[in-house]
Design brief:
The protein has 330 residues and is of the alpha/beta class. The chain has helices at residues 2-26, 42-49, 52-55, 68-76, 88-95, 143-154, 174-179, 192-199, 208-212, 224-229, 231-250, 253-260, 269-281, 293-305, 315-318, 322-329, and strands at residues 28-34, 58-64, 82-85, 102-109, 114-118, 134-136, 164-166, 185-189, 203-207, 218-223. Helix 2 (42-49) crosses helix 11 (231-250) and helix 11 (231-250) packs across helix 16. The chain is globular and about 55 Å long. It holds the Pfam family NMT1_2.
Length: 330
């Protein structure tokens, strides 16, 4: 009797293990490379943490590349299937004559995500105060730098004539450089900007996102060949993002902060909630996910103004809206 019972238990355990393996095997692996780690990408982390990708049958493996060039290298060398990076990078790749162009298929953010941080506290900030100052800018040719220059020029400031502009510091080390005493002003992403403010290392005085208007700042993209072969996978990916965007829309900043906290363990929940609310209030998260022609034209205008547009590229050549339209229609 005991022997029979043991055999039943063993058989049950084997069956349960087989089911678990089958369930795990059902998940399709997608390698996702993000350009940096930022609260700016909140809907992406919500999709991961809330299991929205898994609900769609996807096992999304996230890596942080720390820079647009490194992100695109990972994508082009097949080290990643999908990249989250500035849309300008797809134009750079196309201009170099890529036989397998990189296609933007969904937007995550639709404004600039950086903030102007002053070393000194300023009660009544005016953009003209930057003239004659040392400005620690972002990497040349990247969206933060181009939008930064666009905004400065909008306020009558020539970045290269009116400022001591520093652009030779690696993206990952800009915050550390400012924290160590370099520059009077710096252009920073969150949550670093708010952390600096909390620690007394700097003070947020303006938002580049509010000043620049809508632009396809960070988009999900993949090589044309990947999308052609894996359109159903990309559709599932976008559907999970749609769920995440809606969840962010429906929940408070405090609740969202709790969900994304595992991705920002060095930040306290209060700071995360402040940052999320800041991005939500200025409409940074691209809930519709569709990269419009107006946004694409604005992107190229900003690149052209910064002297970084290698060539004009037609909207239809590097933007695929069919998948987003199909998902949002459903």
């Amino acid at each position: 009797m005991l022997k029979a019972l043991i055999l039943i238990v063993i058989a049950t355990l084997v069956a349960m293990t087989a089911v678990a393996c089958d369930q795990k095997g059902d998940l399709e692996k997608v390698r996702l490379a993000e350009v940096t780690r930022s609260i700016f990408y909140t809907p992406q982390y919500v999709a991961l943490e809330k299991g929205f990708f898994k609900d769609e049958g996807l096992d999304v493996e996230l890596t942080t590349a720390w820079g647009g060039d490194k992100t695109m290298t990972a994508l082009l060398s097949d080290g990643a299937d999908i990249a989250l990076v500035g849309s300008e990078t797809s134009i750079y790749v196309y201009a170099q004559g890529a036989s397998d162009p990189v296609i933007n298929f969904a937007m995550l953010t639709q404004t600039d995500g950086t903030f102007l941080v002053s070393r000194d506290k300023i009660d009544h900030f005016e953009w003209g105060m930057l003239k004659g100052s040392t400005f620690l800018g972002q990497r040349k040719g990247g969206m933060p730098q181009m939008v930064g220059e666009f905004v400065l020029k909008k306020h009558g400031i020539d970045p290269h004539a009116d400022l001591d502009l520093i652009q030779n510091i690696d993206f990952a080390n800009i915050a550390n450089a400012f924290g160590s005493g370099t520059g009077d002003y710096v252009q920073l992403f969150e949550p670093t900007a708010s952390i600096f403010e909390k620690e007394g290392k700097g003070h947020i005085v303006a938002s580049f996102g509010k000043e620049s208007g809508k632009v396809p700042y960070t988009s999900f993209m993949a090589k044309a060949s990947y999308i052609d072969k894996n359109e159903a996978t990309v559709e599932k990916f976008v559907r999970a993002l749609q769920k995440a965007h809606q969840w962010v829309e429906d929940n408070s900043a405090a609740e969202i902060a709790k969900v994304v906290h595992p991705f920002f363990e060095d930040s306290d929940l209060g700071t995360l909630a402040t940052v999320v609310e800041r991005y939500k209030s200025q409409g940074s998260f691209a809930k519709e996910m569709k990269l419009t022609k107006d946004s694409w034209d604005n992107l190229q205008a900003i690149m052209d103004e910064a002297g970084e547009l290698p060539k004009q590229v037609e909207y239809e050549k590097l933007v695929n809206t069919k998948i987003v339209e199909k998902v949002t229609k459903k």
